[in-house]
Amino acid sequence: MAMAMAVMRLYVTILVFSLLHLSLSNPEFSALLDFKSDSDQFNSLSSWSDSTHPCSGSWLGVSCSHGRVAHLVLDGLNLTVSSRALARLSRLWLLSLNHNRLSSAINLSSWPNLKHLYLSNNRFVGEFPPGVFNLRRIHYPPPCPLPQ
Asked: At what angle are helices 27-39 and 2-25 packed, to 10 degrees?
């Protein structure tokens, strides 16, 4: 009985360390933590922790498909920097950063699968960001009718 318990503890320990290693070696995991470090001055992303995986369901605004980050919805969180770290989210197809304090350009060429992009009510100025015209899969909302 003691031997079986020892083997079980060893198995659980190996499993935990394996999962931790997979999480820490995932480029999306480090990309999101880098983005948090760069842009979250008000700790709005406190649920983003290096002890849980982004696809665990516990990270605010992060949704995954097949173990990869597919949706990032971070509206109204007072985020301040458009970090280059987000470019490492290669499977992203929905990005919503409405109502933040973003002012630096986002290089959109890193997301060939991006279908939905929401960046309204930020502090962007100047020209369109690099890669905006290469977004071939983007869905544009229908034009609003003019008031009469």
From this structure: 60
Q: Which residues contact 65 (CB under 8 A, 6 or more apart)?
A: 91
117 close to 89: Cβ distance less than 8 angstroms: no
Q: 36 near 45, Cβ under 8 Å? A: yes
What would the pLDDT profile of 92-132 be if each residue is shown by its tens digit?
Answer: 999 999 999 998 877 788 888 899 999 899 998 888 777 77
How far is C-alpha 137 from the chain's CA centre? 19
Measure the CA angle with vertex 52, ends 4 and 33; round to 5°.
145
Find, among 137, 139, 119, 107, the residue nearest to 74 by Cα. 119
- Under the banding of pLDDT at 50, 70 and 90, the label for residue 143 is low
Total number of residues shown for the chain: 148
